[in-house]
Design goal:
Radius of gyration: 29 Å
Shape: elongated
Structural class: mainly alpha
Strand content: under 5%
Oligomer: single chain
Number of domains: 1
Order of helices and strands: HHHHH
Length: about 190
Amino acid sequence: MDGKDRATELYKLEYEKAAERYDNVYRSIWTIFSYMTAVAAGFLAFGADRIEPHALICIAAVPLLFWFWTSYLPLDRYGTEVIQRLGKIECILNKEFHVDLNHFKPNACKELSVFKELWQACKTGKGWDIWKQVRRARFAICLIFIALHLVCVHELIRSRHSSRQLFLEKPAAAAPVVPAQNVTVTGGHE
């Protein structure tokens, strides 16, 4: 095996592993998100009658905010680096072997930041460029989580100003209702 064949095999291996890694990163992001939504739903379902409503919203938002800061942002940044590397590998392979791989090439030198790309699209003033940025999943995720942060802060403030306690007192259990038994009443006097 000569040097060119060895280089081809190494690029091929790196390309396959990077594409697999890219898929795994985003699969992990959404798997973790589904678990965190289940935890948030559990807080809402089982805490509704035990926790002050404004505080409950904050508590239920914590798993989702935790996911956003500790899973989504770092893994998305890593996924961006992977897709950029895939684009660079395609550029190398296109140049070296005179092929036209173009799946990831547009992302080779592209900044994949939501705000940077949206800002650049707004500077061009073209409606289509702005629309392409707004319809991306990253934009929607960031927009929703900005709103979730604002709602959480608002509800935290309302909870602090509420005269209610964080944990609501559970109402005392009522005495069990015993079904009436068949009782015959006689009209006689003793």
